[in-house]
Structure formats: structure tokens, C-alpha cells
Design goal:
It is built from 21 helices and 28 strands. By secondary structure, the protein is α/β, with parallel strands linked by helices. The protein binds a DNA duplex through strand 1, strand 2 and strand 3.
Amino acid sequence: MTEAEDEQLALVPAPGRRPRQSSPVEIAAVDPVAEVAVDVPLPHLDRPFEYAVPAAMADDAQPGVRVRVRFAGQDVEGYLLARRAEASHPGRLAPLRTVVSAEPVLSPELLGLCRAVADRWGGVLPDVLRLAVPRRHATTERRDPPEPATTPERPPSGRWDAYRAGPAFLDHVAAGGAPRAVWTALPGEDWAAVVATAVGTALSAGRGALVVVPDHRDVERVDAALTALLGTGRHVRLTADQGASARYRAWLLLRRGCVRAVVGTRAAAFAPVADLGLAVVWDDGDDLHAEPHAPYPHVREVLALRGEREGAAVLVGATTRTAETQAWLTAGTARSVEAPREQVRAAAPRVLLPGEGHEPERDPAASSARLPTVAWRAAQQGLAHGPVLVQVPRRGYRLSLRCDRCRAAARCGTCAGPLGQTSGHAVPACTWCGRPAADWRCPQCAGTRLRAAVLGQRRTAEELGRAFPGVPVRRSGAGEVLASVPDEPALVVATPGAEPVADGGYAAALLLDGWALLDRADLRAGEEALRRWVNAAALVRPGTRGGTVVLLAPAGLPPVEALVRWDPGWHAARELEERTSLSFPPAVALATLTGPAEAVTSLLQHAQLPGSAEVLGPVPVEVRGPAARAARGGGDGDEPPPARTLVRVPTPERTALARALHDAAAVRSARKEPGAVRVQVDPLDVL
DNA sequence: TAAAATGCATGT
DNA sequence: CATGCATTTTAC
């Protein structure tokens, strides 16, 4: 080959064979290897990958920063986890493409927590990181942080004296300990103020604190209580609806240690509070604390994990008690913080039930409002002294029934209560006494067919307005949620969870969705019914001041008895015993696998389950909701039948179960097997 | 979506 | 049974 030919070959490359050889980038002199978690949610890629650190990025490429890398031909985001001197990957390392920002958002503690959460729920790290780290907002990041706040001198106290073991818990927090407490709040308690006191105690001791509450309205309450106690600038809020900039700003203030306390909704469980000393969750039974995105972690359990990892105190507070926290108490892993019985009784309202099998209604006004006499009287008497709360079922949740022919309201043959029907259930039943009305016959026209009519919040409000003329009716529900109502006579109609606080306490409350627990075939139905009733009834004045609650539900059922006696601890203990005897959560650890039948079967085959594992199913499941309709209406027609399998293990095996399911999913994803299987460890709804 | 690995037809 | 081209798989 002549020199000329050689030159030609070098200068004029053949088409399609351009020398793509990237110019050799200079690699960092120190620790040239970066471990990166790439943002790809495939289980078999849930591990660090190694990249070369270009010399130009050597300073910025610190552990915790966001990076961009080439991965399988694509540009993907990721987090730099660590710098190394040597690579363990035998092949060539691709260089980091860019350091997105020098802000080390993923601290070692946060990474550790996210990894632990992924492991505990059988999920992958990138999914958890998406929950834990908010989207970057460059402008916000560039702004200089304000001056760090100072520590207050005077440790707050008070409020906690009413509770046994309460002051001891605070002392423990102040002393730098990591106690775990289950706090049962007194009815009518200003719980946000009590929580604020605990946060103040942690701050005074130079420790950070975080508070997770179910919804936005509770964030407002705790925010106000914290501001009242600590002033402004000592804490931040963190909620999903606050917008990318505000959210990232609050998050960065915590991350940079400028602010040491936070209140927020479920994602705040991951808030990067420096030197965390106290983690609080309020009303852990509220299903808003269950994350709806994979891997479906629960706030209470995330905080428990975090408390252990970071040596922080954990406080689970509620007016009721879940079977889960009862299990902590039974196992001795948490202490109960509760008021003595006499104080509970003194603070609780009087609870009345409509008598069973009573004579038909005499009072026409009561009858037109479809209220039993007790309820009507309680409302009437209450209205003389203040606002009256009416808790009604959520819209669309409960159907009232009428005669299909003459439109007369269908009534119970025994107690004349209105008949109702939960969507999906066939047999209608009395909404007062719960008796099923299988062979109903219209007393007016002898018709035998029933039609369902939605008895929503608006309708109830209208009817009550007519039954109590001249009384203002306020509504609080899905459309507009009221935070509070003034201390004056009014009917306040609210759906569960949307009850406004009454300034001087409600004079009375009518709980009209008492039957909610009768039909629901759910493991937590009783617990959930009691939680809703108690949360509403706790807003009512003490019985000693005339506060009265009427619950439209049959006597005898445990949640009903628990409300009448105001003893949520008794109910939780009973609930836990029952679930233990049935091998239900939280007495066992449980996972569900949902997806196309073959996919579920395949996942099970690949899973090296612990020897103690008990597999139930798979059974076909009907998939409900818009997703299912979309899948069915898709056109092709032959969708694979969806199935669900349940796997049950003793609680100590939970992590082993989660790992087995993760690894099996990894095998499937590596083989590109078709069909997505949803793995849920400790799902909230098990039938 | 880039390189590497694999598959496959073709020509010697 | 090398060779070139297309397709599939990997993932640093």
C-alpha cells in the first residue's frame, strides 16, 4: 500500500463507516470509577453500574448527585452512588455524560432508606427514589439558601401530661433516644398542638423532626400549630399539590439543614431531615398513608424502618387504633401513650343507638327526613346549643332503594328504616337494623322490584333542611371541604374525612353511614368503620356538656360497642386476636401477585419462596375501574384472564418473601417474559 | 437508541 | 466455511 493510498483511506472513509471512535476523554486522576443507579425500573437492572468519570467532572461528580449516562444506547438519568478507585466490571466503562447538578440530593441515609424500602416491599430502587426525591427545579436550586435557623432555648411542654407515659416519651426524645409510642388521643383533643409540642421538644434537643398526616387539611392544622409554637421559618411544608418549585425549595431547605422540621403528606415520610430525632404519623389507619405507586410502601412502616435506621423516636398517633399498632404493643416493640379511663369517659360524648324493632315513626318531620326518633331528637336538642354534625356516606357509595313502580321509599318491614344496597351486592338490607330484605313487597302498590337511587350528601342536606326549617345547612365533601364551622346552630353535612372542626365542639352528631360495615367484605371493614365514627364523634362536646352522638347501626357489633364505650384499644386488641386466629395480617406477612394468569404462574415458578410460605390461588379476579374497561373495550377481545395469588409467611420471613418475589421478577424481566405482574407486600385490601 | 452478539444467506 | 448483511440482544 502506497503512502497516497493510505492517506486516502484515512481522509475519505467509506460511507457508513465513519470513525465514530469518540475522542479519548481524559479520565479523573482520583477515584475514576463512579457507581451509578440508573433510572430504569426493571428488576434485573436493580443494581449499580460503573462508569468512568471524565476529568472535567471530577469535582462535581460526588456521591448523591444526579447524572446522565448512556445505558443500552439510551440517555438515562441516574444517581451517582459512590466513587471508586477500581472497577469491578471487567469490560470497558462508558464515561458519565453529564453531571446534571452538583447538588448531592441523595444522602447516604436517604439512599439507605430507599434501598431498605425497596427491599422490604419487594420493589426496585428507582421506583422508591421517584417517591423520595422530588423533581429538580433548576431556578430554585440556584437560589442561595437562607440563614440556618437557630435552636430555641425553652423546651415546650404541656398537653402531654394528660397521657400516661406521655411525659416519659418526651423526655426520651429530649435525651436523644429512639422510643416508639402508640398514642391514643383523647376525644376532642387538639392533636395538632400535641404533635407540635413533641416536634418542639425534638428541636430543642437539637434534633430534627417530621410529621406525616393524611391530607392537605391536616397539614394546615399542624402547620398552624407549629407556627403558633415555634414562629415562622422553623419548619416547612411538603405536599404533592404545592408545585415543583415550592416543593423542591422546601425539600432543599431540609436537605441543606437550614430547616429541621417538616409537616407533609405521605411522601414527606422520606423528607431529608438532618439528624432526625422524631418521626410522627397521625391517623395511621387512613388509607391515604398507603402509597398507590409501586412498591406501595405504607407511611407507618416507612417511619418505623427509618426510626430504626436513623435512631429516631417514632410516634404513631390517632383517636382510634389499628391492628398493626396493637401488634406493636402486644409484641412490646412500642409503648402505649393513653389517658386513664376516667379521663377518656369524661371527654367522650354520649353515644346512642336507635332501638331495634321500634314502633313506626310518629313524628312526620322525622319520618320525612328518614331519621329515627332518637336521631331527630338529638339533632333538635343539639341545635338549641350549637352546630350539629351529620356524617353521610360518600356520594355513589351507598344507594337508597325505592319501589320501581310507585317510587315510594323502600322500608324495612321490622323497623321501618330505609333499605339500602351497596353497589355490587345483590341483597338489599335495612340501613338501620341491618336485616336483609330478600323478599320485599311494596306496602303501597304491592310491587316487588326495587330501583336504586343515589342518596348523596346534597340530597341529605336538602331533606334535613326541610325537617329543620330555619336552620342553616352547611356542606363539606368532595367538592368543597370546610376546615371549620362557627359555634352557632347549624346542620353540618359532611362525608367521612371531610368533617369540619367546630370551634366549641359540636352539640351533637348523627352518623348516618352506620351500615357501611355491614356489607363491606373487607378485612378492615370494622376497624375502618370505627375510625370514621370516632374521628367524627371526637369533634363533639363531652357528654358532660351535653354532647350526643347517634350512630345508626345495630347494637352488638364490636365496632358499635367500641364507639358506645369509647374504647378503641379494646377493639384493636379484639381485632388483632381475631386476625391472629385466622392467620391474617398483621399477624402474618402477606403478598399478592396480580396479573395475567400465565405471568402470575410463571413468577411463582421462578420464586424461591421460604419453606414456610403458603400459596393460595391463583384465582381469577375481576379487574374493576377504568383501566379494566379500557382493556376490555380495546377491541381484540381475547385479553389474558387476570388472576391473583396470595402468599402468606410468618412475619419474620417477610423480607425473605419480598426478596424471593423481587428476584423472580428479575428473572422474568431478564427473559422478557410477557405480562406485567403487580407484586404487593402487605397490601391494604385483602379480601 | 448505540454497540455487540447472533442469525442467516450467499459465494467460494 | 468464511464473508457480508440483517436482526436481536445487551445494558458498565
